[in-house]
Amino acid sequence: MKKLILFSTILLFIILSGSVVYAQKKASPAAEARQRVQQRIEELREKKDTKASEIKDSSQELREKLKSRRGHVFGTITSISGTTINIETKKETVKTIFTDNVTKFVQVGQGGKKTIALSDLKVGDKISAVGIAKDENSGLARFVVKFNRSILRRHAVFGTVKSISKDALTLTHLIYTDKIFTVKTTTDTKIKIKDIENASLSDIKVGDRVAASGTIDNKGVITAKRIFVIPGNFAGVKEKESTSSATTSATP
Asked: Can you give the residue ranges of the DUF5666 domain (predicted)?
């Protein structure tokens, strides 16, 4: 009987021990799985933070590049050395403009826009370098635009028509008659004459008083954008003459 009880006790112990070991073995893979999942989550978080930081840095770099591309500097060429141009701005600051085989050169003037080369630039030319921010002292230009002096100078004149040629007028100043002006016309010149619609150069006569506005070149020739024939006997604005008046006081 005692042997039976002892045997039963041992058997029960073995069964219970096996159940505990089995339960432990069964729980271990689940714990490992949870640990692997947690590690994966941490890795993804780190990767996400790293990617976000890289995107932020890239965005900042892109913004700086776009800022430079949108910017431009304007000035007068002071020197050219190889593919490098130095200009002086209106604020008397010197900017260094680098160019390469991708840089495009354009000239803008009365004849419109045309492509030029670096060799067409010279000291004294006024240019705008696109691709360099105003707060930068140097940079690589994407475009270099050369401006003709003539389009930078606007001019207007009042005068009496002295002579007329095929496409130009010769005017004398309304007051200082020793001053002579040459006014060229183009197909874009608009001529206004009272009571005449679609007036042309042929409608202007010697002796007419006109006002012409447009651009003036280095030789003083005005290319008119508009010409207005002044009706009546307008004689211009004369210099004021100094006058003096005296008053006498009554004495008793």
From this structure: 159-227
